[in-house]
Amino acid sequence: MTRHAPRRITRREALRRIGAGVAAVPLLSTLGCAVSHDEPDGGGSGSDSSTPQDGAASFGTWATGGTAAMTDAASYPDPFTAAASACVMTCQATIGPCHTTSPERADVSDGWDGIPVRLALRVLDEACQPLEDAIVEIWHTNYRGVYSGQINAACNEDEVDRQAGYFRGYQRTSADGRVDFDTVFPGWYSGRCVHIHFRIMTGTYDAADGAAATLVSQLFFSDALVASIFQSEPLYADYGQPDTTVATDGVVGGEDDPSPYVCDVAQMTDGAMLASKTIIVRSSSASVCSMQGSGMGGPM
Fold it and tell me: How far apart are the C-alpha atoms of 122 and 35, rounded to whole Å?
């Protein structure tokens, strides 16, 4: 794959780099992803008893070079060895303005540079049974905090990005409810903490924002991990520290306990990140729950 070199920065990026206090446009109402820094415990999303830990210093230097740097991928451990025991439903959020069509694929990076990430997701129902053949779709920004695709102008403003399709993809779950995506650690934009969007569907993939979906939500990473990456890791440090934490995020910041939406994170022998989470979808009779934010957030 072609590695994408840095190019001229956009007005949005320039404002962010100099710390301009520009208010975020209130467009997104979707969740995000927080991280635990121990070895993956095999637990689930809402069923996890663990909470995000501020142990970023326990990690060594992360690999760079994108998914091509995942040289030991065959040896990555299974983060879901423990059976889920208390499956509490993962709450939903609106899809936001930055979604568009995704291709079916496991590597969503399109050759982009960044910290390589294996995103392992397990989809269970409220009885803790795996959901087989479900569509899991993800989308997120590149390390610069910019989305790809022909989407709302608040999400990107460069024609190169608008013509691209990086960091978007979907797969179908296996018999044990698993999907693994290969990607890179996302960037940030004003008004949101670092996050990954996801959508779960059954039947045929439908790219429409309003298509019937079992769940639309987001995953997050811990503030400590994010701060460490944007302080010292190549590529990311050029963009400075995010202006929004998990607690102040407009999508998840109102949750008393954000840990059901926090990825469990481990560092692999090749320096890649293994981020994992169990997602619990509702039965047809269950009431829908929605994430609680601290206010509105979105791309500037």
Answer: 16
CA distance 126 to 288: 12
pLDDT at 39 over 50: no
Residue 6 lies in a domain: no
Low-confidence winner among 40-44, 103-107, 226-230 (lowest mean pLDDT): 40-44
Does any domain span residue 14? no
Q: Which residues contact 40 (CB under 8 A, 6 or more apart)?
A: 77, 79, 80, 120, 264, 265, 266, 274, 276
Task: List the domain range (segments joined by +) for residue 37.
Answer: 29-77+87-281
Question: How far is residue 155's CA from residue 20's CA, in Å, rounded to a whole number?
Answer: 18
pTM (2 d.p.): 0.83
Q: Is residue 8 part of a domain?
A: no
Within 10 A of 186 (CB to CB), how many other CB atoms are there?
Answer: 27
Rounded mean pLDDT of 60-77?
Answer: 98
Query: What total number of domains does the chain contain?
Result: 1
Report d(CA 96, CA 178) in Å as an integer: 25
The least confident of 18-27, 189-198, 235-244 is 18-27
- CATH number of the structural domain spanning residue 262: 2.60.130.10
Contact assessment for residue 192 and residue 250, using Cβ atoms and an 8 Å cutoff = yes
Residue 290 inside a domain? The answer is no
